[in-house]
Amino acid sequence: MKLRKKSILARFVALAVLLTGMSLPAQAQVFEKNILTGGPSGTYIQFGRNVSEIAAKCGVDLQVQESAGSLENFLGVRKRRFTQFGIVQSDVLEYLKTFAADDPGVARAILGVRIAFPLYNEEVHVLGTNDINSLADLNGKRVAVGVEDSGTFLTASLVLDLAQVNPADRLTINADDSLKALMDGQIDAFFYVAGAPTKIFQSPEIDAARFHLVPISDPTLQAVYEPATIPAGAYPFQSDAVDVVAVKAVLMTYEYDPNRNAYHRESCKAVSDISHLISTRFGDLQANGHPKWQQVDPSALPPGWNIGSCVNVGLDPNYPLVCEGDQPTAATGETPSESEANSAYRRQICATIGC
Questions:
Q1: Element spanning 193, H or E
Q2: Which InterPro entries does the UniProt entry name for this protein (predicted)?
């Protein structure tokens, strides 16, 4: 595991350098606001477009940017200029914490990371041959874990390490290539992290006599992931419900300090503006956005994540960004046993959206 961690850490550093080099000129005429999402056909980019559309109706220009996935998005918010938001899987923070004790650069990258909104749960799918009945059965097998920098790669790597499972080979290939390799007998199983039901497993070519979804019930995973069930019939080959775990997608931001400099001040305002718009137009997002918006619980903050102070500024009912259709809200009681920032967030979210 040490060699693999060194390899992943090297990738982390190389990507950080690349993103730093992509910084935009400091003297740009218009202060840009950007959100890093994912591939052109994924759910992340559709969520980003939905947020951009509601922002545009109120005169806020939020540019949606494609990316390789969670790791690039995480680093982009930290390193890429004029990038205030990224959609990531919540376990990316836990994943990077495993490096923080040994590498001060990773520790600095984690510092200041904040959540703007929790989004939806993504189930961890492991499609394997029928002789694989648990994660432990992946020991010594050939397993595809997703493309580097993707959310699937991060989650698969963390899940295997937490469960102390050691496949003979970990192939870093995308989901389409993984499915083909599995059906051709080149691999024994592959990971894919996405909200169920997801399109790739709708393929009629997946033969229930050869393949199935592997249950995930390892108790050591419960501290990081939520228990979930993929219901019976979610996919053509799946006749029974399958217990798995799920990771939450989150809208990530940074703890900008408006008193530090003009860049931080404008970035904080961007975070506050978008937070205000998501909270006041949450019903519109659920009604007209991607269907996964209907599964979003804005009060379900994942463990280990703290709300940004600029987010809470935007949730204030008196925040000065007024668009047609806005309705005033009143504050409710504070939830105990959490940070002051998270309590303030939950209070305003419950007042605006309801809990």
A1: strand 189-194
A2: TRAP_TAXI
Task: Render pLDDT for 88-108 as a digit per residue (tens, 0 to 9).
Answer: 999 888 878 777 677 787 778
Read off the pLDDT of residues 193-215 as tens digits, 9 standing for 90 and up: 988 888 899 999 899 999 999 99
Answer whether 315's CB lies under 8 Å from 241's CB: no
- DSSP result, 81-150: TT--EEEEETHHHHHHHHHHTT-HHHHHHHTTEEEEEEEEEEEEEEEEETT--SGGGGTTSEEE---TTS
Neighbours of 293 (CB within 10 A): 19
Q: In the chain, pLDDT over 70 holds for what percent of residues?
A: 86
pLDDT in tens, 66-96: 998 888 899 899 889 999 999 999 988 887 8
Domains annotated for the chain, with CATH where assigned, are 2-120+249-352 (3.40.190.10), 121-248 (3.40.190.10)
Tell me which residue has tokens 């599964």.
Answer: 295
pTM of the model: 0.79
Distance CA 341, CA 282 (A): 21
Q: Which of 349, 265, 269, 273 is nearest to 307 (CA)?
A: 349
Token pair, residue 253, equals 């931001």
